[in-house]
Write a structure and sequence with these properties.
alpha/beta, five-stranded parallel β-sheet, Rossmann fold, single chain, 181 residues, 6 helices
């Protein structure tokens, strides 16, 4: 029982500290030409954050993976308006329905793009730790950096929503770790 309390306490401290900063993307030492921005859809601001990173030349590709809340046409139009003539390097995958499937799609895409050495994962703050575990397990040989869609957590809005979200994600991480063993 005490180990469960310790594990939960550790997880809450880790996630409220928004995951160890050493994994966060600040600026890569290498050029943009060996980096790809991977956006895991499903939360607010993720696609826009990926577009901003791409427009600021932090990666040579923008890979958008997951189930889109918007239609594929709306997303393509949004990106075309913001990225202009860079559509050669924007890749869409709307088949993945889970983080595991996201990682498998990215791994398959990397076979065709072996020059990519760095991945910048864009997702929500609560989703990044589990995404990192899954991507590191499936795509082990690449460097993975994390970029949350939002850096600041607004706790004044609805603390119970965040606690519920974080607890749910905690149990998903435990399940992920157990299933990878």
């Amino acid at each position: 029982m005490s180990i469960n309390i310790f594990a939960l306490t550790w997880w809450l401290i880790l996630i409220f500290n928004t995951f160890p900063k050493k994994y966060y993307f600040t600026n890569l030492d290498s050029s943009k030409y060996d980096s790809a921005i991977i956006v895991l859809t499903g939360g607010k601001g993720r696609i826009q954050k990926g577009i901003n990173l791409y427009k600021n030349n932090h990666g040579s590709f923008l890979f958008i993976s997951g189930v889109f809340h918007e239609s594929e046409l709306e997303i393509k139009q949004k990106i075309e308006r913001q990225v202009f003539n860079h559509n050669c390097c924007v890749v869409y995958d709307k088949n993945a329905t889970s983080t595991f499937e996201n990682a498998i799609e990215v791994k398959n895409w990397l076979v065709e793009n072996p020059e990519i050495n760095n991945l910048i994962l864009v997702s929500s703050y609560y989703h990044l730790p589990r995404s990192f575990i899954i991507f590191k397990n499936i795509i082990g040989e690449k460097r993975i950096f994390l970029y949350p869609a939002k850096y600041k957590i607004k706790m004044d809005s609805n603390i119970f929503f965040h606690v519920k979200l974080i607890l749910t994600e905690y149990f998903k991480v435990i399940y992920t770790i157990v299933s990878l063993i």
